[in-house]
Amino acid sequence: MATTTRTPADPTKPASPKEPGRLRRSYDRNWYAWAMVLPTVLVLGVLVLYPLAQGILQSFTDLTEANQQEVICTKTLGGGETCEENPNQAEFVGLKNYVDVLTGQRGDFWLWFTNTVVWTTACVFFHYTIGLGLAVMLNRDFRGRGIYRVLLIVPWAVPAFVSAFAWRFMFNQNFGLVNAVLGKIGIDPVAWTDHRWTSLFTAIVANVWLGVPFMMVALLGGLQSINNDLYEAAAIDGASPWQRFWNITMPGLRPVSSTVILLGTIWTFNMFPIIFFVTGGEPAGQTEILVTGAFRAAFEGIRNYSLAATYGVLILSILVVYAGIYRRVLSKQGEVF
Amino acid sequence: MRRLLPALAGTTALALALAACGNDGGESTSSNEPDAQSSVDPASLEAELTWWDTSDPTNEGPAFQELISQFNEEYPNVTVNYESVPFDEAQNKFKTAAQTDSGAPDILRAEVAWVPEFASLGYLYALDGTPLLEETNFLETPLSSNVFDGKTYGVPQVTDTLGLMYNKELFEKAGIEEPPTTWDEVDEAAKALQGVGAEGIYLNAAGYFTLPFMYGEGGDLVDVEAEQITVNSPENVAGLQIAQDMVKSGVSVKPDANDSYGTMMTLFKEGKVGMIINGPWEVANIDADKAFGGFDNLGVAPVPAGSGEPGAPVGGHNYVIYSGMDEEKADAATAFVQFMTSPESQAFIADELGLLPANADAYDLIEGNEKVAAWEPALEAAQPRPWIPEGGLFFTPLDQMATEVLIQGKDPQAALDAAAATFKSDVVPEYSE
């Protein structure tokens, strides 16, 4: 990072008119640092800042696949080409896209937003609690601990879309494993994908299964960094296991937890393949989350780049606001990452 | 983003030289009318072509590959790179490739609704004036799906439509002598089938498969002439109401949003459902199923009618040529597409797979082919769809509508109104509601 390589200006040296200007001095002293930083700045500019700016600009136009060209040429096989100016070229439309999307004239923004919030909250909650439970169990000494650790990490190694298809099939109403098991214990088969919440439930189950290993590994690392002396001292003082968990383990895990929860939230918020492949938005688009809904709105049929950009900017804004609030809450509690 | 204009100078000269294969009547801007028709010696044609086939790779693909090797016997120096691309990915994949000008195939098997869309974006060669459109006898409706803005951008490979497919053995058991011709008769037949332990019908909860209900009452999606959205017309509401009642009364199995189509096919082939509404593309699949009894056990009839005439949507596939293809390959591409759409080739495919030829002359060659003959009455009930660039976009809102009406029991009027609103906002904004 730039901040770590910068040399602080020497405050004891008085500025004399004969010496070169501040900029020049700074350059003389720090040119090496600037040279080191330059590639990063360039790469970030090309890979992040330029597309970001372009995306934001596009969201104020009505650019689509059909109106992006200035001229449309029709070639005839065997020779001949007629070109004519595109009669309806993309133009600046101001905030129209945002108004359309936020008032629900196009797509179903608020339905998708509600789904996204439910989906993210449920997934992150279960990721964290189940991951923590497993991490605490695996942090003890018992036989075969290594094998359990390996087995529990397996879901993470399976590509997301593969497990998504597997889960989709397991929840199939007629031929799936879940309904077969329910039938064995005398429960009527459930038409999982026919209702909004049961359909969302299947996606959440699939994603929890996928996401727990990461939480488990991260939290296990956090647990192992907690000094064992604390537990011993607490035990001598007569603290119960619960008291030790709440007063030593949880505070000890705070730095890890705050990071993985933030990361988990952002990942889950933008977790495309699970919703796309497990529910496919069924029934009737009622389980789309913001990213899948935006994808469908923008890339199915004649591609609407400006609409896609609008969704992108909205999603980015929501996450930036969320991260800002999250960070502020944490810093009030004395932790900044 | 913007597609580069091809380097004109060199290509045009070359193109004019290559234009030898008949240009009369074409709309090309080249002023030099090419002189005599030069017959190209097949052995001298040399090129490498890529073809994206979107047919089913296990049931249908091998027959098309067989056709390619027949083509190569005639044109030994034209290499055809056969690539099987899954049907539901092909549209997006082709557009991405065409837009970035990298990796697009020279020739694509495009679904009928894709052609006007690709053509409007400038991704296809117009074929006017090429031998592909001369002295051919393509069926009018399938050919019409290739026309956009007065030019023709593809030639039909196969045509299809929806029909009522039924299990002959179950019909016999239930004592049903004639396949039902109206939805009311479907109700009766279903009750008879339920008497012998089967289910009546499985209605696939997808937009395309609800079209017979709309057409059967005289409805349609849009009125292209009047630029009007008619999807929420009283006719369509009445049609969808019939469909919903069939599910609610148990005449139809309650479809399921998780793989509705696959479930329909599995239940039908297992003999658990007596009737389905589906198309000829499944004939090879059903024929191969010994448990079902193969084609011998399969009955095909036109889609049932409502209060009006029976109507089913026309589907099918066309061959189109990517406009980014090197003009030098024009002769080879023409020869290839010409070969694939010839009456002989289409008859071969019909014999192998039971797909319906789009070339009228092919029907003379396949007299006695039961699989094709079975579909002829159904084909008479086929209605062309609105061939506009947005034609493929109608189906996402319609799929939602079908799920809401058939699975979730939503009021047809409300569901169709919602579809009409989406048509207005996302599909054809310039049309009136």
UniProtKB/TrEMBL annotation, chain A:
GO BP terms, alphabetized: transmembrane transport
Keywords recorded for this protein, A-Z: Cell membrane, Membrane, Transmembrane, Transmembrane helix, Transport
Residues in ABC transmembrane type-1 domain copies: 113-326
Any one GO CC term of the record: plasma membrane
The keyword DNA-binding belongs to this UniProt entry's keyword annotation: no
Pfam family, one: BPD_transp_1
Record membrane topology: Multi-pass membrane protein
Subcellular location per the Swiss-Prot or TrEMBL entry: Cell membrane
Matching InterPro entries: MetI-like, MetI-like_sf, UgpAE/MalFG_permease
Membrane spanning residue stretches: 31-53, 117-138, 150-170, 200-223, 260-278, 305-325
Disordered: region residues: 1-22
Domain of life: Bacteria
UniProt record similarity statement: Belongs to the binding-protein-dependent transport system permease family.
Classification via PANTHER family: ARABINOOLIGOSACCHARIDES TRANSPORT SYSTEM PERMEASE PROTEIN ARAP (PTHR43227:SF7), BLL4140 PROTEIN (PTHR43227)
Protein name: Sugar ABC transporter permease
Organism of origin: Nocardioides euryhalodurans
From TrEMBL, chain B:
GO MF assignments: maltose binding
Signal sequence extent: 1-19
Gene Ontology terms: biological process: maltodextrin transmembrane transport; maltose transport
GO CC, alphabetical: ATP-binding cassette (ABC) transporter complex, substrate-binding subunit-containing
Pfam families: SBP_bac_1
InterPro entries xref list: SBP (IPR006059)
Keywords in alphabetical order: Signal, Transport
Family named by the database record: Belongs to the bacterial solute-binding protein 1 family.
Protein name per Swiss-Prot or TrEMBL: Extracellular solute-binding protein
